[in-house]
Each structure stands twice: as structure tokens, then as C-alpha cells.
Amino acid sequence: MKNRLLELLQENCRYSDEEIAAMLGTTADDVKAQIKSLEDAGVIRGYNALINWEKVPGAEARALIELRVAPKRDKGFDEVAERIMAFEEVEGVYLMAGDYDLAVFVKGKSIQDIAMFVARRLSPLDSVLSADTHFILTKYKSNMTDMQNLGTDTDERECMV
User: Chain-wide mean pLDDT for the chain?
Assistant: First the structure.
């Protein structure tokens, strides 16, 4: 039941305890207690609004940067990941398996700003061996939500776990 509860919260964290209880066949008090337990255990780390930035006037540019890095002795990829995470332009850093080591999602005021960030701040890091930048042009799906078909006539705000 915990996995289904988490799936429902991820689908829409604005569901009331009563709505979730009806979907799970339990009581609102039980749902509230389970959510509190999951929050206390660090399973639920927070709630965020899902925003379609493409519809916001003056929205920022975003990119995925694939990095090949040299891991540090005794620290692996953690040290370089922490340095990269500290940049305000960085929205996410992921350790990957495959052709590159880190996937870095960044935002900037423009494509040029992101290019300058890569050239002046990211690539010069001593552990960075190569950086391939992919600019995000259109977001079709994000956090399990079809970004192209969000309703416009109803309140479609959704919270993500």
C-alpha cells in the first residue's frame, strides 16, 4: 500500500487525505499517519509545483550537459559532483552509466549564457575531461506529465514528490 500511496502523491500531491483513502480503501487518518511516517523517514523529501516554463514570458533556456570526468582517488565522482552542484545555474546532477559520467541539467537566461557557463566555469574544472551540451528546445513530458496537453480550462497544478 505504501508504494501505491507514493504513486498517488507523485501523480498529484494535492489529493486530500480523504481522496487518497478512498482510492486505497483505507481511512484518512491512516493515510495521514503513513504520509507523516514517510516524511519522517526521508522517503518523501518535499513537494514541488510542476511548472511549464515554456508558457512563462521571459522564461530561461535549459540544457543537458554530458560530462566525462576523472574521478578522484578515494572520493570517486562525489567531489566533482559536489563542486558542480554548487553552481547556481545547475538544476540537477546525475551519475550515469554509459558513454559519459555525469548528466548535468542547467538553466540560463539564454543559450549564450549557458554556453558561457560551460566554457568559463564548467569545462575548466580540473576533473572535467569533456562536455557535450544539448539545448532543450521543447519539453514534451516531465515528471510523468504530458506538458503539451495540460488543460487550460481547469486548475491543472500538480505537485511532485
Answer: 85
